[in-house]
Amino acid sequence: xxxxxxxxxxxxxxxxxxxxxxxxxxxxxxxxxxxxxxxxxxxxxxxxxxxxxxxxxxxxxxxxxxxxxxxxxxxxxxxxxxxxxxxxxxxxxxxxxxxxxxxxxxxxxxxxxxxxxxxxxxxxxxxxxxxxxxxxxxxxxxxxxxxxxxxxxxxxxxxxxxxxxxxxxxxxxxxxxxxxxxxxxxxxxxxxxxxxxxxxxxxxxxxxxxxxxxxxxxxxxxxxxxxxxxxxxxxxxxxxxxxxxxxxxxxxxxxxxxxxxxxxxxxxxxxxxxxxxxxxxxxxxxxxxxxxxxxxxxxxxxxxxxxxxxxxxxxxxxxxxxxxxxxxxxxxxxxxxxxxxxxxxxxxxxxxxxxxx
Length: 357
Ligand code: BMA
Known about the structure:
Oligomer: single chain
CATH class: Alpha Beta
CATH topology: TIM Barrel
Low-confidence stretches: 1-11
Number of helices: 11
Helix content: 25-40%
Number of strands: 11
Bound molecules: beta-D-mannopyranose
Strand order of the largest sheet: 1-4-5-6-7-8-9-10
Strand content: 5-15%
Distance between the termini: 46 Å
Shape: globular
Order of helices and strands: HHEEEHEHEHHEHEHEHEHEHE
Largest sheet: 8 strands, parallel, barrel
Mean pLDDT: 95
């Protein structure tokens, strides 16, 4: 039997991409960690700023600083960045990070042996508002083929593509259109139909991975959790384009207090990871906790007592805690010197299955 080139490719790789592509190599690397029972720890914006500091002269800065490293002696294995603003050709993202700094930080982190992940909070193309502007349920339809904003939206996608292409051989885990079962972003559950959502994701994939030929993207689908398997799959864009199944889950402290919040978080994450474990084994995908955390970390035992207990025993390739804002003192999700949870974080990083650089 003569095999076609594409059949050979899909037999040879798990992502359907070229065996020697940066994306395939990253996927294989993450798979090897999972097979070894290891989980990578990640932190959003780790090299660009931290609690009460920010890189300014980025062209001349070695990007050596990191809140995580200042506490634990090691950089996180994964660093996340957000592309929000790239669609308008802004020079800085929605949190004020220059895209030049972001590129340098991504390349520097990869050079240190780290993994890069990208999220995207693009503005609302129909209303001109931000990603959280849910005033219209026409937005997704308007950017799809046949919609009034389709051509303009292709330019937005091309700007994201150009940034990712500028990383060269540095692979990224890209997770656009995240937290899409909730309805707080313009691509959320109540703002578009299941088919429209899938079409949005597929349009993004086909523009970047096919038309632009980018071979450094590992695609992640990351709805908010906890949700049922049916809800998770209701907007799943397809096995042919998704590589990693993720979920975003945070701990929120309600009127019942910290203890209740912590145990609710652990059971929500474990329930969701159980769902992901089944889907990912049925669909042959990796899984991750794409965003997580407890704002301000008021629990001095959160890392070992909550996060570690939540992921323990699951084949989670990585978990990423959100950013330590330099300009909002209480908005942090990783430790910094003086944050009050350093010892517990160090114990967490010393666990044999938790990977930092
Ligand atoms: C949110 C907050 C915001 C930020 C946004 C995108 O969770 O951290 O301050 O602008 O993420 O990074």
